[in-house]
């Protein structure tokens, strides 16, 4: 799966979970600051992504932006396929 495909899936999940406009969900968007997500929102987004991608996401510190989420998911997918 390409990074762009991962981003589209992450974007759709974030739009659905946070009820935000698709245009707000960019790679640079900060999840808590720009998209106003709280800890529960982040937990729900991660759970949804685990289900969609069939991976385990042990959320690490340092995930602040949508780009961080995309990179983290992509890394997990690459390791799973290796």
From TrEMBL:
Modified residue annotations for O-(pantetheine 4'-phosphoryl)serine: 39
Primary location group: cytoplasm
Pfam families xrefs: PP-binding
Pathway assignment: Lipid metabolism; fatty acid biosynthesis
Biological processes annotated in GO: lipid A biosynthetic process
UniProt KW Lipid biosynthesis keyword: yes
Cellular-component GO terms for this entry: cytosol; membrane
PTM text: 4'-phosphopantetheine is transferred from CoA to a specific serine of apo-ACP by AcpS. This modification is essential for activity because fatty acids are bound in thioester linkage to the sulfhydryl of the prosthetic group.
Lipid metabolism listed as a keyword: yes
Top-level taxon in the UniProt lineage: Bacteria
Subcellular location: Cytoplasm
UniProt similarity note: Belongs to the acyl carrier protein (ACP) family.
Family matches, as NCBIfam families: PRK00982.1-2, PRK00982.1-4
Official protein name in the record: Acyl carrier protein
